[in-house]
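Q: Could you fold this chain for me?
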Amino acid sequence: MNWLKNNGRSGHTNPLIPGLTRDLLVLIAVLLLSSPLRAQEPELLWLGEWQHESVAEGITLHRASFAGSLFGSNQYLCVLEVAPGARFDIVPAEEKTLEKTTALAERSGAIAAVNGSFFNMRAPYGSVNYLRVDGQELAPNAYDSYENGRPKGRSTRQTGAVATFQGALYVLKGDAIERWERDIEAEDVVTTGPVLLVGGEAEPVVKDKFNTNRHPRTAVGRRADGTVLLVVADGRNQEAAGLSMIELQQVMAALGCCDAINLDGGGSTAMVVRGAIVNHPSDNRKFDAAGERSVANAIIVTR
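A: Sure. Below is the predicted structure, expressed as structure tokens.
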């Protein structure tokens, strides 16, 4: 971990933080490494104004604002860190309807939730990606072109999946089998993508507008020890520019994820903790908690 990048010998100051000596930076590094929010490349995230809140046993909410210091832009991140032992489920909206993430969390008695995968915003509504809940298949993959240009091809937004088995959450990459998601041994499954990290290695990201432009993003990652991170990045306003897919990939790696995948983003991006929105959903184009969009499904956390 190169915490002291751009730093000289002992006693020299770091140009990123004037006035701090190398010895003091070493102390800060040690303190940050001992905090719950461990990072593989902490220099990417350490200039954020972080706040930490214990939500429940083994569940911590981390929030940070970056004043021009994350990818040269204003950003706002929410990271829900969930130690092994909590329960995850995928919950759907009522058939042929959409519901807000807050409503899905409340109906399920969830401690926390984030929005799930991609969906139709017009009738008949519902998921456009494969969805299985409690062992029952509720939706197939809608094979359309999306961004990949093939008339009946699988979108890169369907190349991976989030699955829950006996309450544990897993991030999975698809294989060459045409309908591999149906063979996943899990109670809940939803396909999504693109896949960001597999075994700690970055996956290739298609260069199209969906991936290269900055948008609000939602992602889920898993560390080697089984800790799950639910992550949202705000966007589409002056206080938070949003992330490109490559930037999201780098954030998930910096948070120490071995496996990570993108979920639906844009106006759908929302995180709910104890019944309240903790990020700034963008559908109303204001930097507040009132711009939440209705969605087709959500990933929830319970005990």
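A (continued): The mean pLDDT is 87.
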